[in-house]
Amino acid sequence: MSSVLKFDLYTTVLLQTIIPHNVFFSYFFSFFSIKGISVVIWLLIAAFLIFFEERKHPGIQKKDKQFLLCFTISLLITATLTNFVIKNIIRRPRPIFPPNIYHLTPNISSCPADFSFPSGHAASSFAAACILSYFDKKRRWFYYLVAILISYSRIYLGCHYFLDVVVGALIGYLVSKVFLQIHSIIGK
What we know:
Layout: H1 3-18, H2 23-33, H3 37-56, H4 62-90, H5 99-102, H6 120-135, H7 140-156, H8 162-186
């Protein structure tokens, strides 16, 4: 086993043991890992942001339209890139832990049967957090906290290795940053 894979496995196991594995935390993190729920969470956050912005400044603002466009395109590109392109090229299997480690997580939510690398949840979450932070700098800590919770849930539940989540988060963040740069050049 290469040193990178050893580091990945040991870091994953360490992160799985930081928070106690019990029914409460298992259900808590399972909520963030339900297939599609991360997109729903981000759409609700975006809707609330637009709603509160709309209350301050009635009428659909150009900024609101730009935000929705950036948000939607960034999430679509990120999800397509991670879930349909990179996962099928790399084809890394999901984690299979030995019995002395696997017992840590009650089997509340099952992991998908597709490939592990990179984490689509982490990629989409960091893409959304990046876009939301660009348009609403006051709450950026909240957006990144939600992204971290969603991403960590994938490790906690044993669905991803540490590096799956880190690379997924980087892809989401970088895709959004590139898209925001393109938007700032041609969108004005």
